Amino acid sequence: MTETTASQIWVDADACPGAIKEILFRAAERAGIALTLVANQWIRTPPSRYIRSIQVPGGLDAADNEIVQRLAAGDLVVTQDIPLASLALEKGAVALNPRGELYTRDNIAERLSVRNFMEELRGAGVQTGGPAAFHARDKQAFAGQLDKWLARRGR
């Protein structure tokens, strides 16, 4: 595969944990795969021919829209954003949560429904709490799913 037709990794980087970025940096170097972090702010990346960062203007879903516009079928999108994951799946990409949970055609509708319900609750003033703390097992689950994706891509 040439670099222009090979799949690549897109990261919704504004809310991506630093530990996950580090795993992705090492994987990009090891596998020789393009890794692009997209964020509303400048993101520090190690010097590499495979790793780059795109800063988009602030604004609702600006980073998400940039990723959707650029991604191709077979690419990997790393995001906690369920609507972005849904759009990535529609384009034939693979969507992975930083906790190692794959978004699939089978689970995305339910995830969107739960997300929308929680947003309605928050809009009504109900305290819903934040996400659970990020643990080492989440990091391991992510690394395992990333390795599986990289292995499938190499075939």
Any key phrases for this structure?
43% helix, globular, alpha/beta, 5 helices, disordered N terminus, 155 residues
Question: Overview of this structure, please?
Answer:
By secondary structure, the protein is of the alpha/beta class. The protein is built from 5 helices and 6 strands; from the N terminus they run E-H-E-E-H-E-H-E-E-H-H. It has helices at 18-31, 62-70, 82-90, 108-123, 136-153; strands at residues 9-12, 35-39, 51-55, 76-78, 94-96, 102-103. Helix 1 runs parallel beside helix 5 and helix 3 (82-90) packs antiparallel against helix 4 (108-123). The longest helix has 18 residues, at 136-153.
Task: Describe the secondary structure blueprint for this structure.
Elements: E1 9-12, H1 18-31, E2 35-39, E3 51-55, H2 62-70, E4 76-78, H3 82-90, E5 94-96, E6 102-103, H4 108-123, H5 136-153
Helix pairs in contact: 1-5, 3-4
The biggest sheet amounts to:
6 strands, mixed
> What structural class do the secondary elements suggest?
alpha/beta
Uncertain segments are 1-5
The helix-strand sequence is: EHEEHEHEEHH
* Rg result: 16 Å
Total number of beta strands: 6
Short description:
The chain has 155 residues and is of the alpha/beta class.
